[in-house]
Amino acid sequence: MEMSTSSSKSKVVKIIKWIPAFFILCCSWYLSSQETIEQMPGFWNADKLVHFICFGGFAFWVAFACNIKTAKKWWLPVVIISLYGIIDEFHQSFTPGRETSVLDWLCDTTGAAMGAFVYLFVCRIITRFRNKKQ
Fold first, then answer.
1. Interatomic CA distance for residues 102 and 119, integer angstroms
2. Out of 4, 63, 108, 126, which could bridge 85 as a Cys pair, Cβ 3.0 to 4.6 Å?
3. pLDDT-derived band at 45, boundaries 50, 70, 90
4. Is the predicted pLDDT of residue 25 greater than 90, yes or no?
């Protein structure tokens, strides 16, 4: 039995939706593998802000790929990103010059929560805008 065209297009769209999240994952993994990162901002604990922002963006795109539309499921991307944060910190323990940090993981997780909420907020704005047009 052949797969319908709309069904195959739907699967392609589902895969394409994961590209931004996968890109952030690859960048994060690459940067975790570096002994030092030269382009870090120069203020105290700047890496914590970088963790918060990057993992927030990561959660935003995971929420997009998972098609999270209600606040009841906001936790799903947060859990996924938080677990990845643990794996990332463990991965850093094998990189010379790097160390694991519970505070980095907490910034990853709080950034993920913020990213998931921002995604929901953007979805609500888009929904309201579409409803006003009708």
1. 26
2. 108
3. confident
4. yes
Q: What is the mean pLDDT of the chain?
A: 90
Identify which of 23, 54, 47, 55 has the alpha carbon closest to the alpha carbon of residue 98. Answer: 47
CA distance 93 to 22: 22
**Helix, strand and coil in the chain, % to nearest 5:** 75, 0, 25
DSSP state of 4: P
Q: Which amino acid, one-letter code, is at 75?
A: W
Q: CA angle at residue 68 from 65 to 74, to 5 degrees?
A: 120
The span from the CA of 74 to the CA of 70, in Å, is: 7
- Residue count (the chain): 134
Q: Is 45 left (phi over 0), alpha (psi -120 to 50) or beta?
A: left
